[in-house]
């Protein structure tokens, strides 16, 4: 076998399979982490207790029972602090690359891509509740004291609120308080939790291990296959020549050189949120279907200039004018992605398709520069964009910069990161 060092020996050979949407299109696979709990002392879950999730905000909470008949439980504490369970509350984990769960059954290894990672820690919300219950008593006592005092003249303050600028509105909408308000408005969804040895859990594992016994033609190199299977840092998205000219960055030049060294079909990395929902069937795409797909992309781009593959699949199924392209909704991820890029209407960058050009000569150069920077960086700052624009001789205007960042990115703590889907 190639790549084996002298002295190494093959212990076992296993067939590797990629889980191909056997759990359903709307199913998400999440990794639950417990960073404050060592592996040798896991939480004792009671799977009959409440488990809830907010799908959009990606928040989860789980009730874990407490043992009240131990010496470590303070039965003399205030009644509001005597709990029969603790609540684990989540925070989303930023997945800097793509991960997958590997499970071995017989001589097969099945890789299932992870959609999200969630860290769960004990919530102290019950302390806030106890404090809130005591506030009315304090307020009543304060009001009584005020009533006993003689009335005094109070100064009246009048405030005139200035109209917010576009930048101020953007900062407010990305503020912690605003995002917390949106999260608070989303209702909790109850989940059914099942023990690892339950029948429901066994059916999930069985679904993951269902494989298609068919030969799949290999048209990619080993490195390109690994990038398509599980995208990572080695993935090298295609960069159009127009973007290369606009970007002076070293990484953009390296991408162009890498393309010349490896002339092969596009192997742009696939984001972890994309997952093929149909058996991997390498069927040729007809000329009529390719043209119909291009027309469908044009129709979709009239509403959204950025979208992921899941959204395009859904649009293909529902768009009544999709015609010959409608059947492409069930094609494998890599084949559909290459067909969409082949239309020449969009670029592919970190799991999303971006409209190649808006037709605005004063806006597109800076926009293309920002896209090239996003291809090589997970996060951007304003200084990164302005510096690259100055080096490339691309006009940098505050209005155009703000427009491009709102179109392409989401703000996280003063940093900009590529959007994952049309919004």
From TrEMBL:
Residues covered by region (Disordered): 131-151, 233-284
Pfam families named among the record's database cross-references: RPC5 (PF04801)
Skewed-composition ranges (Low complexity): 244-256
Protein origin, superkingdom: Eukaryota
Transmembrane portions of the chain: none
InterPro entries in UniProt: RNA_pol_III_Rpc5
Protein name: DNA-directed RNA polymerase III subunit RPC5
Taxonomic lineage: Eukaryota, Viridiplantae, Chlorophyta, core chlorophytes, Trebouxiophyceae
